[in-house]
Specification:
With 477 residues, the chain is α/β, with parallel strands linked by helices. It has helices at residues 20-23, 64-78, 89-92, 103-118, 134-140, 147-162, 183-187, 198-222, 244-266, 271-279, 288-294, 345-359, 389-407, 456-466; strands at 13-17, 82-86, 122-128, 169-173, 227-234, 237-239, 300-305, 309-311, 363-367, 377-378, 384-385, 412-418, 438-440, 452-454. 37% of the residues lie in helices and 13% in strands.
C-alpha cells in the first residue's frame, strides 16, 4: 500500500486508556465504598480475601485521585485527543443499592472532566470496568441477580444527568464477554464459579445485556448527542490447521465472543445461541420487556485487542497457550511477550474487518498495548527515562495494521493504548508489568515515590498524534 499516512481520518481520536480500580487509589476516601477489586489482591487467578489487605496494590494504585492534574497535563503534552477512563460505581453509590449518590464522588469526576476540558481532551467513560460494588456482590450475588439492573439504572441516570454536558462518549461494560470465564471479576458473582451452572452464567450475562441496552435507552433520552458503545474483549480465533473440523471449531470459538456484540449491535439473540441453549437444556428468564429493551442498540462497537488464538477439534492438541486466558491454543508462528501473550499485529487488522463488515457500525480500539519489565535509567541529560524501543515497535506494528484496515474500508473512530500511564495489572495485580508511556515510581512491594517520568515512547506517541499517524510508516528509530 502507498501513502498510508493519509489513511487516519481527520479528527481521529488518539489517546490512552485506564480503569479506576487500577490507577485511582484512594479506595476508602471521601465516602467511597468497597468494590470487588478491593479484596482481589492477586489478580484474576489469585482469589479473594475477607477484607482489603496491604498487599493489594490497587488500594493505592498510582494515586491518580490526588495527582489527576499532573497526569492530565502529561496526557495533554502528548497531544491526547481523548482519554478513556472509568467511573468507580462504588465512589458514586458506595453500596450500590443506596437511595442517594455520594456527592463527593460526583465532585471528583466533575474536577477530572473539567481538567480534561481545559486541554480539549474528550473523555471516553466506561460505566462499569470490573469494579462492581462489593456490597452488591455479597448481598445480591452480583449480576446473577436481576435486581442489579435497577441499581445500575439508578447509577447511570445519575452520572448521565450529572455529566451530560461534559462527556459525549460512553461505554457500558468493560470486556463484557469476560463474564463467561471470570464471573466474579466480570459480574461480581459471589458464588464460586465451580458452583455455577452454564445456565447461571448465561442468565447473569443476560442481565448485563439488558442493563447495557437500558443504559443506551436512558442515555439517549437524557442527551441525544451521546455516543454510547459496548466493549468486548477481542480475540480472533484462527483454525490451527486447514482441517474442516478445526475451521468449524474456530467459528464456534469466535461466536462465543461475537455473541455479545451481536446482541448489542442487532438488538436480539442470534439463532446460533438459541441452538446452543436448546442443545444444552438452558432456559433463560427473558421477559417481553427485556426483548424490547434489547432493541436499543449501541452507536458503536469498541474492543480491546492484545492477542489472537488458535482453535482445534483435536483434544490431543487442545492445550491452552500460556497467555491465552480465555482458552485457545498457542499459534506456532507467533512470538510472545514476557507474560506469554502472543504478538500478532495482523490479527488487529483481521478483527477490525471482521467486526466492521459484520455490523456496519463505527469501531473504536479502546485497549491495545504491551506489558513489559521496564528499566528506569538516567540519560545523558540526567533525566530518568526508559528506553522502551520494544514498546514502540509493538505499537508501531499494530498501528500500521490499523491503517491497513482503514484502507480496507473500516470506519474507525479512534485508538487508545492501554495503560498510557503505568498502572496495576488486572490479570496479575502487579506493577512490574508496565504498559505506559509514563513510568510511575512504584513497585510491587509498595515502595516508591510515585514520581512520574517520560519514557522514550512518550515522545514517539507525541509524534504519532502530531502527525496523525504519518511517522508510523517511517519506522521506529
Amino acid at each position: 500500500m502507498s501513502n498510508l499516512e493519509s489513511k487516519f481520518p481527520p479528527g481521529f481520536l488518539w489517546g490512552g486508556a485506564t480503569a479506576a480500580n487500577q490507577f485511582e487509589g484512594a479506595y476508602n476516601e471521601d465516602g467511597k465504598g468497597l468494590s470487588i477489586q478491593d479484596i482481589y489482591p492477586k489478580g484474576i487467578k489469585g482469589g479473594r480475601t475477607a477484607r482489603p489487605t496491604e498487599d493489594n496494590m490497587k488500594l493505592v494504585g498510582i494515586d491518580f485521585y490526588h495527582r489527576y492534574k499532573e497526569d492530565i497535563a502529561l496526557f495533554a503534552e502528548m497531544g491526547f485527543k481523548t482519554f478513556r477512563m472509568s467511573i468507580a460505581w462504588s465512589r458514586i453509590f458506595p453500596n450500590g443499592d443506596d437511595s442517594e449518590p455520594n456527592e463527593k464522588g460526583l465532585e471528583f469526576y466533575d474536577k477530572v472532566f473539567d481538567e480534561l476540558a481545559k486541554y480539549d481532551i474528550e473523555p471516553l467513560v466506561t460505566l462499569s470496568h470490573y469494579e462492581t460494588p462489593l456490597a452488591l456482590s455479597k448481598n445480591y450475588d452480583g449480576w446473577k441477580n436481576r435486581k442489579l439492573i435497577d441499581f445500575f439504572e439508578r447509577y447511570v441516570r445519575t452520572v448521565f444527568t450529572r455529566y451530560k454536558d461534559k462527556v459525549k462518549y460512553w461505554l457500558t461494560f468493560n470486556e463484557i464477554n469476560s463474564t463467561l470465564h471470570y464471573p466474579y471479576m466480570g459480574a461480581g458473582v459471589w458464588t464460586p464459579k465451580e458452583r455455577l451452572s452454564t445456565e447461571d452464567l448465561y442468565q447473569t450475562i443476560h442481565h448485563k445485556l439488558v442493563a447495557s441496552a437500558l443504559a443506551v435507552k436512558v442515555g439517549h433520552e437524557i442527551n441525544p448527542e451521546f455516543k454510547i458503545g459496548c466493549m468486548i474483549l477481542g480475540i480472533p480465533n484462527y483454525p490451527l490447521t486447514p482441517k474442516p473440523s478445526d475451521v468449524i471449531q474456530a467459528m464456534q470459538d469466535d461466536r462465543q465472543n461475537l455473541f455479545f456484540a451481536d446482541v448489542h449491535a442487532r438488538g436480539e439473540y442470534p439463532k446460533y445461541m438459541k441452538r446452543l441453549f436448546k442443545e444444552n437444556n438452558i432456559e433463560l428468564n427473558i421477559t417481553n420487556e427485556d426483548k424490547e429493551l434489547l432493541k436499543h442498540t449501541v452507536d458503536f462497537i469498541s474492543f480491546s485487542y492484545y492477542m489472537s488464538s488458535c482453535s482445534t477439534s483435536d483434544p490431543e492438541k487442545d492445550i491452552q497457550g500460556e497467555g491465552n486466558f480465555l482458552g485457545g491454543v498457542a499459534n506456532p508462528h507467533l512470538e510472545a511477550s514476557d507474560w506469554g501473550w502472543q504478538i500478532d499485529p495482523e490479527g488487529l487488522r483481521y478483527i477490525l474487518n471482521q467486526l466492521y463488515y459484520r455490523y456496519q457500525k463505527p469501531l473504536f480500539i479502546v485497549e491495545n498495548g504491551l506489558g513489559a519489565n521496564d528499566e528506569l535509567i538516567t540519560d545523558e541529560n540526567e533525566n530518568k527515562t526508559v528506553n522502551d524501543d520494544y514498546r514502540i515497535k509493538y505499537l508501531n506494528d499494530h498501528l500500521v495494521q490499523v491503517a491497513e484496515a482503514i484502507e480496507d474500508g473500516v470506519e474507525l473512530m479512534g485508538y487508545t493504548t492501554w495503560g498510557c500511564i503505568d498502572l496495576v495489572s488486572n490479570s496479575t495485580a502487579e506493577l512490574r508489568k508496565r504498559y505506559g508511556f509514563i513510568y510511575v515510581d512504584r513497585y510491587d512491594d509498595g515502595s516508591g515515590t510515585l514520581e512520574r517520568y517520560r519514557k522514550k515512547s512518550f515522545y514517539w506517541y507525541k509524534g504519532v498524534i502530531a502527525s496523525n499517524g504519518q511517522i508510523l510508516f517511517e519506522g521506529p528509530e
